[in-house]
Amino acid sequence: MNRTTVCGDAAIVCDVASHAPDDWQQLLLATAAVDYSQTQHWQDVICRHRPGARQVWLTARRNGALVGGLAAIVTPAVRRLGGLIALHRIDSSVDGVSGGPLLHPALSEAEQLSLASELVQLFLAQRPAGLASAAVALNAGFERRLGEVLTPAQGWRRRSSPTAVVSLAGGPEVVARDRLVVNKRNERNRGLRRGAEVFATSDPDLLGEYYPIYEKASAHWGVPPLSLDLLSDLLADPDGRVFFTCVRLENRVIGGHLCLHLGDFVFAWHGVTDPEFARSHFPATLCFWGDIVEACQRGARWLDFGASGGVNSLSGFKKYFGAELMERGFYVNDSSSMAVLRRGQNMMKRMQIRRRGRWHDGATGDHRRGHGQ
Q1: Model pLDDT, residue 6
Q2: Angle of the 204-221 helix axis to the 228-235 helix axis, nearest 10
Q3: Nearest by Cα to 126 from 367, 335, 372, 350
Q4: Is residue 368's pLDDT more than 50?
Q5: For 54-99, how does the pLDDT look when each residue is reduced to its tens digit (9 = 90+)?
Q6: Which CATH superfamily is domain 164-326 in?
Q7: pLDDT at position 366, please?
Q8: 61: closest CA among 115, 142, 125?
Q9: Going by CATH, does the domain composed of 2-150 fall within 3.40.630?
Q10: Where are the chain's structural domains?
Q11: 3-state DSSP of the chain
Q12: Which end of the chain is more exposed for a tag (fewer CB within 10 A), N or C?
């Protein structure tokens, strides 16, 4: 399947493939504010650990050069009502990450908007038949530029999903001095003085030691944990773009964050800490501090702590580190039959959000699913 559109004085041909083109990495490097979910490694790992999932790569070429694209995943049908109905999805972003169209900066602003619209329509055309949804989350940069492409007139519904982002300008000490509140600096210092250590690593064994903490947190939240194999495979990124911020006390791992780095952004995507040590060694504070230090060393400009899922205490915790909210949109386009079911699903989700709290709330006082401190 391909579509041809005219942007400027040359035709652009959009096409669909099941694998990334050879020059995809060059497009990533050329595009600002890209997301780690748009890398081939992310797509490969997610599909490897979701039986039946398959990749979809949309590409746009002008005179043979790759000028745009969109990476997506079609997941296998989810069965409901004892297997009587099957729900289908295609996503350009899964598990809390952002995605959406990539557009080469050589295109003019008008050309980028026109091509983004073409890619979105082609993406929607890949939505499976029946009870099905297409979904895309736009990061803050893409939201400002491309949000207008995903219009209600075309069936897109938008939900605000702001993300907490810390500027890394000036380096770790400037961030600590100017953006961390005093009590977080004090918690960091007390935790370190009491013997805790925090460092970035790619050691899968340390990730394995962390995993039981995450399993316990997932049981508390009532959600199935992502598998250790999936997390370990992500950490093994051949380009070194994934790291694990590890907090350890006397050779015991008491918390960690799995972070994704691409371009100017590090995303603290997945993490949790042990509530047993929340008041004595402040592992959640140390995790955030370790993320900041490593992100600065990598030359990133921003550290993204992600959305807070409606948990006010988690949102407040991030603000103690100088995090500011950047607007991000989550867009869904349902088939007509799926739209009928959606209202009931949304009602159940609202009830779950009201019941859910931070793992540490009411216990020892710290918190994160991909973020449960």
Answers
A1: 57
A2: 140
A3: 335
A4: no
A5: 999 999 999 999 999 999 999 988 877 666 688 899 999 899 899 9
A6: Gcn5-related N-acetyltransferase (GNAT) (3.40.630.30)
A7: 39
A8: 115
A9: yes
A10: 2-150, 164-326
A11: CEEEEEECCEEEEEEEECCCCCCHHHHHHHCCCCCHHHCHHHHHHHHHCCCCCEEEEEEEEECCEEEEEEEEEEEEEEEECCCCEEEEEEECCCCCCCECCEECCCCCHHHHHHHHHHHHHHHHHCCCCCCEEEEEEECHHHHHHHHHHCCHHHCCEEEECCEEEEECCCCHHHHHHHCCCHHHHHHHHHHHHCCEEEEEECCHHHHHHHHHHHHHHHHHHCCCCCCHHHHHHHHCCCCCCEEEEEEEECCEEEEEEEEEEECCEEEEEEEEECHHHCCCCCHHHHHHHHHHHHHHHCCCCEEEEECCCCCHHHHHHHHCCCCEEECCEEEEEECHHHHHHHHHHHHHHHHHHHHCCCCCCCCCCCCCCCCCC
A12: N
For the ranges 23-32, 141-150, 247-256, the lowest mean pLDDT is seen at 141-150
Structure tokens at 223: 């959600």
Tokens of residue 299, six digits: 């030359």
Q: Which residue's entry shows tokens 């000490």?
A: 173
118 residue type, one letter: E
Query: pTM of the prediction?
Result: 0.87
